[in-house]
Amino acid sequence: MTPATAFKGRRVAVFGLGGSGRATVKSLVAGGAEVTAFDDSSETVAKAAADGLPTGDLREADFAGFDSLVLAPGVPLTHPEPHWTVKKAKAAGVEIIGDIEIFGRERAAIAPSAPLVAITGTNGKSTTTALIAHVLREAGRDVQMGGNIGVAILDLAPPAPDRVHVVECSSYQIDLAPGLKPTVGVMLNLSEDHLERHGTMANYAAIKERLAAASDVAVIGRDDSISSAMAARLTAAGVAVVEISERDRLDLSGARALRGAHNTQNASAALATARALGVDDAATFAAFRSFPGLAHRMEEIPTSLRPAFINDSKATNADSAEKALASFDRVFWILGGKPKTGGIEALVPFFGKVTRAYLIGEASAAFAETLAKHGVAFEELGTVERATAAAARDAEASDEAEPVVLFSPACASFDQFRSFEHRGEAFRSAVKALDAARAAS
Questions:
Q1: Pairing with 386, which of 37, 239, 268, 342 sits 20 to 30 Å away (CA)?
Q2: DSSP three-state, residue 300
Q3: Mean per-residue pLDDT for 89-97?
């Protein structure tokens, strides 16, 4: 944990008592702040109180008595409407911040030279964050990884000159971190997302740009027009900018977890970051080859079977599935679930890569119509288990040199599963069952 000693003696209201909110309360208390924590869920407040956290009803509180309001990232700051705590804080002239800002102030107070790598962008944040952390660990650095990727930043060890924090930052978190000043700030790409929270694409992009602009070194993707313009603007303003692209020429042979052009951009970001932190290129490329990847994101499941089984359950829309399809020459493609607007029409240019498709979930009928219209062979199997067995059977019998069973659903998971992780585990279990059956035969 990082005790927030920079807030010692300050009165702080904390709203939102999920994982990051609870970590924030503990950090502030450990640092000597006077904290009042609250949540819109009475059950959540009761559980926090039972666990010894200092709770109180912020609906009745006089916000003029607080120095800061700390919001959990998911609480609306501006759109579609500011949360009631935001309105009360603004009326009282109280600053509104998040846990990333608390960490940043603690770093400035106790170890201003401590290396901080912050990663943002619309797509690829988690993979790039994990890859950078892996490269730095393999180079012998003391690395703390967290933020939006899973471990709340204030649950990590405190900043220190010989310790690198590698932190994934969502636009929500950046919006609540006005003083964020990374050593290396990575801004991968921008496409329309989270407009219900930020109102307009311009607002969304400006929040992302804030992270890059405040960095000692800004690593920025140039493959979309908004990011490319951002790189040019910051370069003109005197920021040290390194531009990256999915078209960069990198030798990623042997890096099986980094297939596809999108992962070339992720690897380029990691290479630029490692260079900025003094890591030798040879060590970085060696680390690329040992990178295991992230679960459910183009994850290869090891088996004794002939086909390669790729778990890309995180592909919850056509854009994500496109990156997976583009990464292979021929695939036996398992897809379907709760469909998104537009279905799979955007993937028609990639249908030539599909040997056969296997449909599951609510989208089956609509996807079958699209596939049939474009001459793609398919089966409607209903469940992940049946689809995996059929795809494995056909891949095994094919004359492909390296057959690939690709589970990239292009759909949300909520028709049959709790989450994309739950769905990915179902695919993993189905593959493992086939592997065990082969071993027993």
A1: 342
A2: strand
A3: 98
